[in-house]
Specification:
The complex is a heterodimer of chains A (119) and B (158).
Chain A: E1 2-6, H1 10-21, E2 30-34, H2 37-47, E3 51-54, H3 63-72, E4 78-83, H4 88-96, E5 101-104, H5 109-116
Parallel strand pairs in A: 1-2, 1-3, 3-4, 4-5
Helix pairs in contact in A: 2-3
Chain B: H1 10-24, E1 29-32, E2 42-52, E3 56-63, H2 64-75, H3 84-103, E4 110-112, E5 116-121, E6 130-140, E7 143-152
Antiparallel strand pairs in B: 1-6, 2-3, 2-4, 2-5, 3-7, 6-7
Helix pairs in contact in B: 1-3, 2-3
Classes of the chains: A alpha/beta (119), B alpha+beta (158).
Amino acid sequence: MKILVVDDSKAMRMIVVRTIAKTDQGSGAEVLEAANGAEALELVRDQQPDLVLSDWNMPEMTGIELLEALNREGLRPAFGFVTSESTPEMYERAMASGARFLVTKPFTPESLGKALAGG
Amino acid sequence: MRGPRVIFDEDDLRTITDEVFGVMLGLDCAPVDRAPEPLRGTVVASCVQVTGAWSGAVTLDVSADLARSAAAAMFQADPGDLSVEEIHDAVGELANMTGGNVKNLVTGTAQLSLPAVAQGIDFHMRIPGAVVRNQLDFVCAGEPLRVTVLERREERSA
């Protein structure tokens, strides 16, 4: 399994990567990193990850803009948001664009694992 | 007359702070009535702004030692090995998480800014047009932390 972690904070990317490794679904996965949506879009094109875990609020290209860009290009990796914001409006927009889940920061290995498992 | 746009209180703010610093970073963090030792010396301050149905800002002020400890917890690195950029990245993300969770308690649509971080001695971060709504002090890992929520009041016509 190949997972792309997208967050403009290097510290948060490291936390997400460590937490992924503690989950049943992410243990042993190959993990790629990007610092914004634009970098992530390039990596999805080149590396074709199975799953994208993305922050929402980032410079250059936000997480939802990334998801919408992937949709326009017909690229359909599984997509989940890991973000400090989780209003109903954001959740609805994310789901309407094809996201599978939205995990709120701060998160625990249990909450991220549950989301990865589709729970 | 418009209804309330912000429905959080100081208990919510304590819970958010505990989840960010305690649960996520594993730092022992407790609220105090007043910081036992005011933030003196080098302070790292971070801020995110909220704009929309409710407008304001959330700022974190931490001692340089707490900033380094928090960054070490986030990077799982030796505190002495961290660069200034990494420390600022970590403290900015702490403001992002705290501010994002405050924004989640706001009714109506609002936008969260990217975090800004400043470091210095004896300085005051000012958000023009905003007044302090809540200000809570904590001791985290033995070091002071101040969480402030500022609120932008209705704009007056010129």
